[in-house]
Amino acid sequence: MIPRIQKRGKRTIGLLYYLYGPGQFEEHIDPHLVASWDECAPDPGRDPNATLKQLQHLLDQPVENVDKAEQPKKHVWHLSVRNGADDRILTDEEWGDIARRMVAAAGIDDPEEESGCRWAAVRHADDHIHIVATLVREDGYKPDLDFDAARVQAEARELEVELGLRRLNKGDGTAAKRPTSAERHKAERQGRERTAREELRETVRRAVAGAASEAEFFGRLSAAGLLVRQRVAPSGDLLGYTVALPDDHNKDGEPVFYPGSKLAPDLSLPRIRERWSTSAAGHSRDTATDRTSGSARISPSSARRRATTAIWQAVVVLDQGTDGQIAAQIAAAGEVLDALAKTSATHTRRELRDAAWAFERASRSHVRAERGHDRALRQAARDLIYGGPVLGRGEDGATTAMVIDMVAFLVIAAAHWHGRKNHAQQAAAAREAAEHLRAAYQSAAQHPMAVLRHRGRRLSQPLQRRQVAHLRQAVPELAEQILAEPGWHALAATLADVEAAGHEPATLLAEAVARRELDTAESVSDVLVWRLRRLADLPADASAVPEPGTTTPQRAGRPKRPSPRDNARPRRAR
């Protein structure tokens, strides 16, 4: 149940016209009263003899009875109460009881007193009601509405339990502004998957990801096809910006512009600048990842490898850092997810986009982020953007699986931290993002893991027994579980590659296990595969590695340098 207090108004009749009217898109059906201050108010929706003017006059009467100087400048209080799409349809009697409890909780009326404000609750849809009240009590005093929003939210949580409705998490005021009903209906009419406000928020977030300056940020917005207006002070200083979709117009045919702060609290220009102020990248472009610099740009697979390393460092901070450092890492993790979603292959794009969309809510809380500690993750996001899109094959596809596996651990760690801080909405958002990441991983890892499993099954029996021995030596407590997993053969092939690269498999495996808990892993062997391949600097794409036993141990991925003898004519056997 979502109660929302709207902006206060000056005209009671104007709000009544809207509540009893057809709505902006004919969405209002059978408008009628379900409750009022005295249960005797006229209902223009059901009583043919009642008029909106009569109802307005009765609601405004206490306001008009006091001196003009004592009347509130904005005397109309408006509360909407909406149920979720999955909730059952409530009766008029249930909505009426909800209305009475909401006005009592807010301080508008008190059933035990006879001097409350006048109010009426109108229902014009199955899933919500509107409550309109005038802010002068019957005795001429004004109601105490301090913290009215918090009080109606608390009442909603109790009503959810009593009525068997979906229980929502308590908000903390850091969420992005929700689209209005008019915006939602407009999107439906235009066949948009999301409202213009939501599309803009996603596009602006992607433009921010890894950006190092205002010029770069605004350049990305324009390149994404948005209309951009900058607000400049008389001194020439840039104060803010607004953005619009080129095909989203108002009734006068003009583009509908939204300030960044109305898209999300962290998308205002001052909050975006905080990301650059403590970062060295904010003062000079990184030529290694800047396409405009003329230097060779980073490859998509290299960008994903770098991101995997940066994400692992961030996971350590989430385990050991201060709250401000952790908040910075979580905020920057949102940039990495946005960058991954923007550059992902088709078969993972949808899930990664949904993961980034969900995690957006987890990236903000009242804990102030200590910017500067997020530099590595922000650089990782920048690398991903300038590395460009992947096709999902070969090393690009395998490193995508590797980075998704690691970012899922970061997101789960963020969920745990938010849970410890009682950030209910953020924790739920992070858990939702983790589910999308699991689905994206399954899609990205399907081919590279199949190649590894195939190679693992083809290992000679002595070589297989040696990998089992390495496993039992390094992690005896997990050995039986791992050997029973479908991914064991992929891990065996990786251990063989580790050995061929000149490492001690048992030692490196023990290090990989010790680096992070594995309780949340769906497949321990899968997780260890990617950790080992990263620690040993092995190609993520196993098809790029020679079959174990066919070459002498050397650094995987680097071809053996030919010697003069290789081209010499073979000697005759004697």
Account of the 3D structure:
- The chain has 20 helices and 8 strands.
- The protein is α+β, with helices and mostly antiparallel strands and 574 residues long.
- The chain has 3 domains: 2-163, BirA Bifunctional Protein, domain 2 (2-Layer Sandwich); 190-277, no CATH class; 300-544, no CATH class.
- It has a 5-stranded antiparallel β-sheet with strand order 1-3-5-4-2, sandwiched between helices. Strands 6-7-8 form a 3-stranded antiparallel β-sheet.
- A hairpin with a 5-residue loop joins strand 6 and strand 7 (238-244).
Strand content: 5-15%
Question: What is the makeup of the main sheet?
Answer: 5 strands, antiparallel
Strand order in the largest sheet: 1-3-5-4-2
Helix content: 40-55%
SSE pattern: EHEHEHEEHHHHEEEHHHHHHHHHHHHH
The N- and C-terminal alpha carbons lie at a distance of: 91 Å
**Class per helix and strand makeup:** alpha+beta
| Number of H- or I-type helical stretches | 20
Topology, number of strands:
8
SSE topology:
Elements: E1 2-5, H1 12-20, E2 32-36, H2 52-64, E3 76-82, H3 92-106, E4 119-125, E5 128-134, H4 148-163, H5 181-190, H6 196-208, H7 214-223, E6 227-232, E7 238-244, E8 258-259, H8 260-263, H9 269-277, H10 300-320, H11 323-343, H12 346-362, H13 375-387, H14 394-420, H15 424-457, H16 461-474, H17 479-483, H18 488-500, H19 505-514, H20 524-535
Antiparallel strand pairs: 1-3, 2-4, 3-5, 4-5, 6-7, 7-8
Helix pairs in contact: 1-2, 3-4, 6-7, 6-11, 10-11, 10-13, 10-14, 11-12, 11-13, 11-14, 12-15, 14-15, 14-20, 15-18, 16-18, 16-19, 18-19, 18-20, 19-20
